[in-house]
Write a structure and sequence with these properties.
single chain, alpha/beta, Rossmann fold, 2 domains, 7-stranded parallel sheet, globular
Length: about 375
């Protein structure tokens, strides 16, 4: 099924071709016509399933048909859990809005940076991507109004609820007009998401795309048994010895992310850490360098990885294991995307072995293990 069958305008179809999109993902096939027809929607799909374009494209098309909103009155609002995801979603809006005959101003707002430039730049914005806390600050400052919002998108609703945004989201719901189109996207259908669904959605189109566990065959998985004190040298050995040029490394804490990145740089491997303690500017710079290939290794915590969406990322390394099997699958799912193979490596200490067995059992796939005790790590 080509994009041309989904009801999109010639301008957006041309932009899709220019961006290298050939066939729509399953969620795009089902979501785009439903959204264009004004339906509410519940989409259960993992990151990397093509969901962002599935709501960006129809929202832009619908915005072309609507009368311009009053200044500072938003016509479409997308709520997201993290600053990185806000920036990423807004970039997709910006790319496709450039192809439209009538320009539509889009913007991302989030905390961690000065609010004043955001207040000024909200002039003329029609589509806003926001984290809940910063949005409420801007509403209180009368820098933005939600009374005329026609479309609400909750992107990664499960993460927003898990991160404790429920109270802020309820405040935002109260500010929105009752008559609007609601689009809810989540990786899982938890009780909390189901409750939000029951309150927000009216006769929704329901789409459930298979979880990433069904797509991990594209990912070559390896595990290395290693003593804790040899972990750092083994990581650097694997990167250098295998000539890895773009590697996403996961740690479980901010402190460890900084330590690992520092040791990589000391050993002449260009690396940077990305986590919540870094300034927004530093995080954006590191992410842009990593995406463009100027930075060899990005060391990330789980939360910060939500905004890292690279179509052909070749390598993911778990320096430390996550707490849950779902987080493990989400991590390794950063690679092996867009039908391209990838490699996921996990460094397993004796203390990790039992937990890693549980992860493999839940995943339904056993990982090939290599003992690194005989590796000569001198000089790494």
């Amino acid at each position: 099924m080509p994009f041309s069958t989904l009801g999109l305008s010639a301008h957006l179809l041309k932009a899709l071709t220019a961006q290298g999109y050939t066939q729509p993902y399953p969620i795009q096939q089902q979501a785009i016509p439903g959204i264009l027809n004004g339906k509410d929607l519940l989409g259960i799909a993992q990151t990397g399933s093509g969901k962002t374009a599935s709501f960006v494209l129809p929202i832009l098309q619908l915005a072309q048909k609507q009368a311009a909103s009053k200044n500072r009155h938003i016509s479409a609002l997308v709520l997201v859990p993290t600053r990185e995801l806000a920036i990423q979603v807004n970039e997709v809006f910006a790319i496709f809005s450039m192809a439209l005959p009538e320009k539509i101003k889009t913007m991302a707002v989030y905390g961690g940076v000065s609010i004043n430039p955001q207040m000024i730049n909200l002039q003329g914005v029609e589509i806003l991507v926001a984290t809940p806390g910063r949005l409420l600050e801007l509403v209180e400052s009368k820098a933005v109004h939600l009374s005329d919002t026609k479309i609400l998108v909750l992107d990664e609703a499960d993460k927003m609820l898990n991160l404790g945004f429920k109270e802020e989201m309820n405040k935002i719901f109260a500010l929105l007009p009752k008559k609007r189109q609601n689009l809810l996207f989540s990786a899982t259908l938890s009780d909390d998401v189901n409750n939000i669904n029951a309150v927000l959605l009216k006769e929704p189109v329901i789409i459930k795309i298979e979880e990433e566990t069904d797509n991990i065959d594209l990912i070559s998985q390896l595990g290395y048994f290693v003593e804790e004190e040899r972990k750092g040298p083994l990581l650097r050995y694997l990167i250098k010895h295998n000539g890895m040029q773009q590697v996403l490394v996961f740690t479980s804490s901010v402190f460890k992310a900084d330590v690992v990145a520092d040791k990589l740089r000391i050993n002449d491997i260009k690396a940077s850490a990305i986590h919540s303690k870094k300034s927004q500017g530093a995080r954006e710079e590191a992410l842009n360098k990593f995406k463009s290939g100027k930075l060899r290794v990005l060391v990330a915590t789980d939360l910060m990885a939500r905004g890292i969406d690279i179509k052909f990322l070749p390598h993911v390394i778990n320096y430390e294991l996550p707490r849950s099997p779902k987080d493990y699958i989400h991590r390794i799912g950063r690679t092996g995307r867009a039908e391209s193979p990838g490699e996921a490596i996990s460094l397993i200490t004796p203390e990790d072995q039992h937990h890693f067995k549980i992860i493999q059992k839940k995943m339904g796939k056993w990982v090939t293990m290599i003992d690194s005790k005989d590796f000569d790590l001198q000089g790494y």
